[in-house]
Structures are given as C-alpha cells and as structure tokens.
C-alpha cells in the first residue's frame, strides 16, 4: 500500500474563484507532471516547462502547449498503476482528472467496478451510438 498526499476534491468554479490558488503556488516546479483542463479533451496531462509569476507553460502529451493560471492545474500521480486502483481512496490525488483517469484505466481493462470509500461506482460498458457511457453509484 502506497501513501501519498491527497489534494482536496474541488470543482473548477472554486479554482476560478481563487480559493485554491495560494495553496497550489508552491506545489509546482519546472518538470512537474500536471493535468490541465481542455475544452475538447476534458483533461490533458503534460509537463510544466516554465513558471511565470502566476502562470504555468505546460507542454501537453497531446502536442499542445498551453499557458494557464497556476490555480487551474492539478498534480498528476506518475506512480499510479497503469490499470488504475480499485479503491479510489488509494489515489495519491483525489481530484476530478485523477478520478476520471482511474475510471478510464479500469474501464479499458473491463474492470468496471471501483470503490470510493464505501461507495462503489459502476462504469457500464455499452455500444451506444452516441458514444456516451454511464457512471453510477451502486448501493
């Protein structure tokens, strides 16, 4: 069992309001692995290339280079298993991009059950025409 720091699970509204900006300023350095929000991809991962006051220049693995406010970036767990973890309380960073990446990894392996504390999540596999997949909390 690996222990690590746990970031608060916050939404983008709180980040945009600046509530987490001060805490996040000190956690990134050049070379940090981060998640950044993208309107097309939802979340992209990348490396911090530059830090300019309150902005980060991030070279994303998709090939895009973006400049974002430091409060809009989330740390990426580089030691997370490729297949994700069954119990999401074991994630080093419990934030939206980390949870979604874990669900995506588990879904790809057809390991569709995940736990978040005592609440199991079920990601339904389907051949939906619209490409949407359902994630539900099971009792």
From TrEMBL:
The keyword RNA-binding does not apply. One of its GO terms (molecular function) is cytoskeletal motor activity. It comes from the Eukaryota. Keywords: ATP-binding, Nucleotide-binding. InterPro entries: Kinesin_motor_dom_sf, P-loop_NTPase, SH3_Myosin. One of its GO terms (cellular component) is myosin complex. Gene3D superfamilies: Kinesin motor domain. Residues 29-78 form the Myosin N-terminal SH3-like domain. This is Os03g0860801 protein. The lineage of its organism: Eukaryota, Viridiplantae, Streptophyta, Embryophyta, Tracheophyta.
């Amino acid at each position: 069992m690996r222990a690590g720091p746990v970031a608060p699970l916050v939404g983008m509204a709180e980040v945009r309001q600046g509530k987490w900006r001060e805490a996040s300023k000190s956690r990134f350095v050049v070379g940090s692995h981060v998640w950044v929000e993208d309107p097309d991809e939802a979340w992209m991962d990348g490396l911090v290339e530059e830090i300019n006051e309150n902005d980060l220049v991030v070279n994303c693995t998709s090939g895009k280079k973006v400049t974002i406010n430091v409060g809009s970036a989330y740390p990426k767990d580089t030691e997370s298993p490729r297949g994700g973890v069954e119990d999401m309380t074991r994630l080093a960073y419990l934030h939206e991009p980390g949870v979604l990446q874990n669900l995506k990894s588990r879904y790809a392996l057809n390991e569709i059950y995940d736990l978040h504390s005592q609440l199991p999540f079920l990601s339904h596999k389907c051949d939906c025409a619209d490409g949407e997949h359902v994630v539900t909390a099971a009792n």
